[in-house]
Structures are given as C-alpha cells and as structure tokens.
Design goal:
41% helix, 13 helices
C-alpha cells in the first residue's frame, strides 16, 4: 500500500471523535478454494498457535521486535513453506506462503475466477530457481484483494489460462506494507530457496524500505491497537508503539508527523491532554495545515478548557476541508454558547454531509436534538 494509502483518513471516523478502523472502498473479489490459513487465523495468539504444533514441527527466528515461525513445505498442510509473523505482543499479524516449485491452480476454479477479475498492481519478470516445467525467467503478476480489515496478495505466473501460484500473503491492514510478496526479502525466498541452486541475481528487483524497519513495524503495531484490528482497542499498546516509533525515528517528515499525530490521539484517548497537545503541536510543526491534526488539537484544547482556541482550530480545519464532517460537528458544539445561529448552521451542514452513514447515527441523533433545542 502506498504512503498516501496508509495515511488516508476518513474524516468521519478517525480522530479524537472516534477511532474505528478506516472504511475501505468497495473490494474486488476475494473468494478462494485454496487451503491457506486453514489451521489458524489472523489475530490468533502465538501461545495458541504454538500449542497446535510440536516444537520440532516449526522453526523460529526474530522478526524485528516480534517473531517469525516457519513450517517447512514437507510437513505443511498447504504443501508450501508457511511463515507466520507475530508482533511483540504475541499476535499473528501476517502470514506468507511460498511455493518455490510453483503451485498449479488448475484444481482451484474459485481462486482462478477471483484472480481473473483482479487487475495486477505490479507486473515484472522473475527468476525462479526451482519452478517446474518452465524457464527460469517468468512474467509474474502481483494481485491484491481482501476484506474489511485484512489484505490478501497473490504472486502468480502465467496469469490467464494456466496460472501458477508462487506466493500468497495475508495480513491485517496496518501491516500490509511489510507483507507484499514483491518485497525483496520475500522474492529472495523464491530465487534462493533452501537447497536451491539460485538464479540470476537481480538486485534492483523488489521493493525495499528506506525507512527503518523497526519504525514501520511499531507504527503498524500502534495502528492495529488504536483502531481495534484484533479485538478491543488497546491504547496502552498504542502509546507504547507510537513512542517507540518516534524514538527510532523516520527520515521522512510525513511519516514522523503522522506518528506524532497518532501518539497525540492516543494520549487524548487516555485522558492525558497535555501530552496530547504537545504531540499534536509537534506534528503540526513538521507538517502544518493538516485538517485532521487541527481538528484533534481543537478537541484537546476544549478538554483543557480553552474553547476559544478549540473553536479557532475547528474553523481552520473546515476552511481547509469544507466537507470535513467531524470538524463541522465539533465546530457546532464549540460555538453553541457564543453563536447559536452559527451552531445551527454547522450542525445542519454536518447532517447534510453524513446523511445515510450508519457509523454516524449517534452523532446524527445528537445534532438533530441540538438543532431543535437551539431553534426554540
């Protein structure tokens, strides 16, 4: 997922007024009849996963601050090398299935139909050391689908009549950047599998992050905890993760500004408003005039008793983004006491923007009540 995609924020649901997982646009097909993740599921606890397998059935190694557990293809249910990635809290956040010899998808009509309806996000030539019945250099395609909170990616050759699966990855959305089969370290598992002869070196092929892996990993961990991707929201984990993100650092100011923004939102949710204010100001210093940050800082200022400052920030947010519904709602609340006519206007604008959105039902009901009361 692109940087813009990771930071894309739906104004109705993200911010101090709410912290649900972002709403995805309509999704492409995601059905499959291929048995992957059959014995586990994303968000499973590591202790439960390990309990299903004897110690000799898998190998373990560090994956940043977490762990990767691998089941070899000789003993796996999928007949591929299965790698499961757990964060430092022991939660399964992603899985990668690798088929060094390729898996013929002819016996899987449901998945083939799904793949036929997806548009490749990346197309490239890949040298595969052990691919059966084909030459080493193959035209490969990366296809992406998923559901509300997770993303599935398939790396295939021969897309069309006779597709062959090389890799498949599954991840909860905050970690999707770290689980693309087009990442260099994952492509290397096809080029140089255990016991393989390897193939032609193509050092420039595959994506590679310029930002520190530890920062990206902790940022994803914070997102998963803050937005309840695996169960309930956990602001303690989110605060820990975002602080570690900031401490390890990003070279890109956009990344760093967003990390401080998210940390500020987390402190606000924990009721630590001075800390929240400090982080949000740091975010704006790095990247000024971001409507979400201005709106969240406005909410914090109101909590600290400075309604005038909050109102000014809400006004700036809606000036920058006139259709920012949550900021309109917050602006209406902030000016009820001093300018009831303006409050009515802002509530009515908010209601027009969120008409038909179920996630806003509670605020819609409150806005209608306030408009009725203010007009009396």
């Amino acid at each position: 997922m692109s940087l813009a995609g990771l930071f894309a924020v739906v104004g109705l649901v993200i911010g101090c007024g709410g912290s649900a997982a972002p709403v995805k646009p309509p999704l492409p097909p995601s059905q499959t009849d291929l048995v992957l993740l059959a014995s586990t599921a994303l968000c499973e606890r590591k202790i439960d996963f390990v309990g299903k397998y004897p110690v000799t059935a898998h190998t373990a190694k560090n994956w940043g601050s977490g762990h990767e557990l691998t089941i070899p293809l000789e003993t796996s249910a999928s007949h591929g090398e299965e790698s499961y990635f757990f964060d430092e809290d022991g939660v399964l956040v992603g899985a990668l299935f690798t088929f060094p010899k390729g898996l013929d998808l002819k016996p899987y009509p449901v998945l083939r139909r799904t793949l036929s309806q997806l548009k490749p996000s990346v197309e490239f030539y890949l040298n595969v050391a052990q691919l059966e019945t084909r030459t080493n250099m193959e035209s490969s395609s990366l296809l992406e689908t998923g559901d509300e909170k997770s993303t599935t990616q398939y790396l295939v050759t021969g897309l069309g009549e006779n597709p062959t699966l090389l890799q498949a990855s599954f991840t909860i959305d905050p970690y999707v950047r770290l689980f693309s089969p087009y990442r260099r370290e994952f492509l290397d598992r096809l080029r140089n599998p255990t016991g393989g002869e390897g193939g032609q070196k193509m050092e420039s092929q595959g994506t590679e992050d310029k930002e520190p892996f530890s920062s990206l990993q902790q940022f994803a961990r914070g997102q998963a905890a803050q937005l309840a991707y695996c169960g309930e929201k956990n602001y303690d984990i989110a605060a820990d993760a975002y602080q570690k993100t900031v401490a390890t650092g990003f070279t890109n100011k956009v990344w760093l500004a967003e990390a401080r923004h998210k940390l500020g939102v987390t402190w606000q949710a924990k009721g630590q408003f001075e800390k929240a204010k400090a982080e949000l100001l740091q975010s704006l210093a790095l990247r000024p005039n971001i409507p979400e940050v201005l709106n969240n800082l406005g909410t914090v200022q109101v909590k600290l008793g400075d309604k005038a400052a909050g109102l000014s920030l809400f006004e700036k947010a809606v000036t920058l983004r006139p259709n920012y519904a949550l900021a309109r709602f917050n602006l209406a609340e902030a000016c009820e006491g001093t300018n009831p006519k303006r409050a009515i206007s802002e509530y009515e604008t908010y209601l027009a923007l969120v008409e038909g959105i179920p996630e806003e039902d509670a605020r819609i009901a409150h806005a209608k009540e306030r408009v009725k009361a203010l007009k009396q």
